Amino acid sequence: MFKLSKAKIFFWLGVSFLGGIFLSQFFLIDLIIKLALLNCAFILIFIWHKFKVCLVIGFGIIVFFLGMLRYELALPKINSDWIQYYNEKREIVLVGTVIVEPDLRIENTKLVLGNLRSKELDKNLKGRILITVPRYPVFNYGDLLEVKAKLKDPGEFNEFNYRDYLAKSGIYSVVYNPEIILADKNKGNFIFNFVLKIKYYFRDSINKILPEPQASLIDGLLLGNKSGLPKELLDKFNLVGVSHVIVVSGYHVTVISSILLYLGIMVFDRKKAFWLAVLGLIFFVLLTGIQASAIRASIMGGLVVVALNFGRMSNIRNVLLFSAIAIVTVNPLFLSFDVGFQLSFLATIGIVYFTPIILRYLKKMPNVFKLREVLATTFAAQFLVLPIIFNNFERLSLISPLANLLILPIIPITMLVGFLGGLAGIIFFPLGKLLGLIAWLFVSYMIKIVEFFSQFNWAAIEVKKIWFGLVIIYYVIIYIIWRALRKK
Question: Domains along the chain?
Answer without folding.
Answer: 6-74 (no CATH), 83-188 (2.40.50), 199-487 (no CATH)
